[in-house]
Amino acid sequence: MHHRIDSSLMLAIVSVLAASLVNLYGVSSAVGSGLFLRQAIWGVFGLALLWACSFVRATYWERAAPKIFALGLVALVAVLVFGQVRGGTRGWFVFGPVSLQPSEFARLGTMLMVAAFLGKREEDRLDLWAFLIIVAIVAVPVGLVLLEPDLGVALTFGPILVVGWWLGGLKPRVWVALGLLAMITVGVSWTTALKPYQKERVLTVLDQDRDPYGAGYQVRQSRIAVGSGGLTGEGIGRGSQSILRFLPAQHTDFAFAAWAESTGFIGGSALLIAFGMILLRLGVLIEKTERRFGLSFVTLVFAWLAFQIVVNLGMVLGWFPTTGITLPLFSYGGSSVISTCATLGIVQSIWRHRFVNQ
Question: Could you tell me the residue ranges of all domains in the chain?
Answer without folding.
Answer: 7-352
